[in-house]
Amino acid sequence: MDEEKLRQLLEQLKRDEISIDEVLDNLKELPFKDLGFAKVDHHRELRKGYPEVVYGEGKTEEQVVEIVSEMLKKDSNILVTRTSQKTYQAVKEICSQAEYHHLARAIVIRRRKIEVSDTYIAVVTAGTSDIPVAEEAALTAEMMGNRVERIFDVGVAGIHRLLAHLNVIRGAKVVIVVAGMEGALASVVGGLVERPVIAVPTSVGYGASFKGLAALLAMLNSCASGVAVVNIDNGFGAGYLASLINRG
After folding, report:
1. Fewer CB in 10 Å around end: N or C, the chain?
2. Helix (H) or strand (E) holding 71
3. What Pfam families is this protein classified in (predicted)?
4. Which fold has domain 120-246?
């Protein structure tokens, strides 16, 4: 239940349109609903401004469906990250509005109109192989009401590709840079823009990249000012943080 719905409920009580018992029925599952295997946080939107996001990996189809079913009762937009086509089909059976984004491996359900920001977030990848993580970041940001500009495959192996899109990148309020291998792109972008840069190391690369650890350490040691780093492959975290900056 968001703040506006809570306000409407109290206004109805004030006008004697509903009883105290009816109000209690609406509020009894606040602040969370205990499903046994999960506790759905209905207060998340009141505290954070956006409903709880469901991390799908490691959950069974039945668990995801039950969590989504509970969240649908509150009529909020829903994002399920790191999930499969098979789980999506199960969710689709209980909600025809569900959409599956293959690259991001995410399910989205839009129940309310999303007001889109005037300013935008730029999502930049070093390579095509980084796009799945970048799409998770972009989709998260879009679900939170942000305009997103995608700029893919502009890594340091061909720096002219990045420079060709510099005007778009510099026009963003915040830039997400997604890169595997040696993770150098975040430092390069950080040295070219006056906006905050959120670096996302990916697990893309040959053996000595250590499944993203090399990129993570390179980004943490960036000599460019204004570069912050999230965890390996954490597109969701980058998209969420970028949204807070863009809409702040």
Report:
1. C
2. helix 61-72
3. AIRC
4. Rossmann fold (3.40.50)
